[in-house]
Amino acid sequence: MKIIKPLIFVFFALTAKSQTAKDYIILLTADLKQSWKLDSITMNSNYTELKKEMVVLFKLNNRAIIFYNSIQKADTVSWFLEKKEKYALLTLGEIGHYEIDFLQRNNVKYMRLRNEIPIQKNINITEYFFIPSNYKGQAKSKII
Amino acid sequence: MNTEKTIKATIFSVVGVTAIVICITWAGKEKQFNDLENRVSAYNQLTTLIGKIISVSNADSLIKWSNSFNHDFYDRETIPQEDSATLLAMRRFKFELNDKLSGTINILDPDRFEKSGHDIIKECQTQIAKITRGSEELAKNN
Questions:
Q1: Domains observed in chain A
Q2: Inter-chain residue contact B74 with A121, CB threshold 8 Å
Q3: Strand ranges inside chain A, DSSP E
Q4: Which residue does chain B place closest to A99, by CA atoms?
């Protein structure tokens, strides 16, 4: 019994479905067929790092093109995705680090970015909800 | 004669002070034991509650137990501030609970809610083991 228990544990550990960074990257880049539009932001904050209505196209070369309201303006930033033990972390250029999740509610799929969760209860976490968008932009992007 | 009285008074004083010191020490240790017992009890209650929340299938019961978690543990000082591991696990669980209550599914990690609950239970068990070891050492020193 002493030998069987660890073997069973190892079996379940190996067969358990675990998410890798690749799983997140596949959904994030969507084979470049789709970009992500920032649809809503939680909290009544006047200042947020990401601006509503902006559209982000994540490319496989770890560059993300951010299109703003005006189609004339676009920025290119680097992106990096790291899978941590309990969550995945997306680094978006100099803009910031965000916990990233792909969610579904009422048959609507969306992507949520939020600031890393700290211990303190009184620190508010801003959550950014992105919906899939077909916009791929024509504006010339500026690397920032 | 005076010397004899002085010696007697000194002996009485020493005995009295010793008795008082023993009483205070005993009461202090007793309080320490009670504090440890209360902490173990809080961790046990939290473990039981989280177990109920992550295994419940009925929506009404989920809301009921969630309210209990918010009022009795999340918004309280039940878990000491120095136990940052349990507090962080509770904070993460609170976010997952909100998703669960709103019917949100995590596409890549559908079991995140249950996992975050198990994280709290694991941290509680670690703390209970630490406290139990502490109280055993306290009992030995007594």
A1: 19-143 (2.40.128)
A2: yes
A3: 35-41, 55-58, 63-67, 74-83, 88-92, 96-105, 108-114, 127-133, 141-143
A4: B92
